C-alpha cells in the first residue's frame, strides 16, 4: 500500500486513527501541535514522519489524503473548512450535543 495519508490531530481519537493507518502501511505523516505527543507517537511508529505545523504539511506533494481529528479548542483557533482542503479528506471533530 502507498504511504500517502496524514493524520492531523492525534489526541483522544486521533491516536487510534494513527494506529490503524500505520498498521495498514498507509500512514505517511502524523501532525499535531503537541510536540510531546509527536515524540511519543514517533517512538511507536519510527518509520512515519512527524510535523507540528499543519500548513507545512499541506504543502507536501506526497500526501494525497488527510484525516483531521480536532479538539474543540483547535476548531475555535482555525477555520478548518477554509484552510484545509476537503477533497480526499475526512474531517472529524466534536459536534455540539
Task: Give short descriptive properties of this protein.
5-stranded parallel β-sheet; globular; 5 strands; alpha/beta; single chain; about 100 residues; disordered C terminus; Rossmann fold
User: Any guess at the CATH architecture?
Assistant: 3-Layer(aba) Sandwich
pLDDT average, as an integer?
76
Total domain modules: 1
Principal-axis shape equals: globular
**Helix-strand topology string:** EHEHEHEHHE
Query: How many beta-strand runs?
Result: 5
- The CATH topology is Rossmann fold
* Strand content range: 15-25%
Share of helix among residues? 25-40%
User: Mind describing the biggest β-sheet?
Assistant: 5 strands, parallel
Q: What would you call the structural class?
A: alpha/beta
How large, in whole angstroms, is the Cα Rg? 12 Å
Number of helices: 5
Provide the fold topology:
Elements: E1 5-8, H1 14-24, E2 27-31, H2 35-44, E3 49-51, H3 54-58, E4 65-69, H4 72-77, H5 80-83, E5 89-92
Parallel strand pairs: 1-2, 1-4, 2-3, 4-5
Q: Could you walk me through the main structural features you see in this protein, from its secondary elements to its overall organization?
A:
- The relative contact order is 0.22.
- The protein starts with a strand and ends in a 5-residue tail after the last strand.
- The chain contains five helices and five strands; from the N terminus they run E-H-E-H-E-H-E-H-H-E.
- The longest helix has 11 residues, at 14-24.
- Residues 93-97 have low confidence and may be disordered.
- Strand 2, helix 2 and strand 3 form a beta-alpha-beta unit.
- The protein has one domain: NAD(P)-binding Rossmann-like Domain (Rossmann fold, 3-Layer(aba) Sandwich).
- It has helices spanning 14-24, 35-44, 54-58, 72-77, 80-83, and strands at residues 5-8, 27-31, 49-51, 65-69, 89-92.
- It has a five-stranded parallel β-sheet.
- It is an alpha/beta fold and 97 residues long.
Amino acid at each position: 500500500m502507498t504511504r500517502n495519508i496524514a493524520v492531523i490531530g492525534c489526541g483522544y481519537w486521533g491516536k487510534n486513527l494513527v494506529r490503524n493507518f500505520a498498521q495498514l502501511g498507509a500512514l505517511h505523516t502524523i501532525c499535531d501541535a503537541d510536540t510531546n505527543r509527536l515524540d511519543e507517537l514517533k517512538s511507536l511508529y519510527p518509520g512515519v514522519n512527524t510535523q507540528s505545523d499543519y500548513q507545512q504539511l499541506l504543502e507536501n506533494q506526497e500526501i494525497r489524503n488527510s484525516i483531521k481529528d480536532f479538539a474543540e479548542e483547535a476548531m475555535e483557533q482555525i477555520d478548518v473548512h477554509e484552510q484545509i482542503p476537503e477533497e480526499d479528506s475526512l474531517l472529524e471533530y466534536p459536534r455540539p450535543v
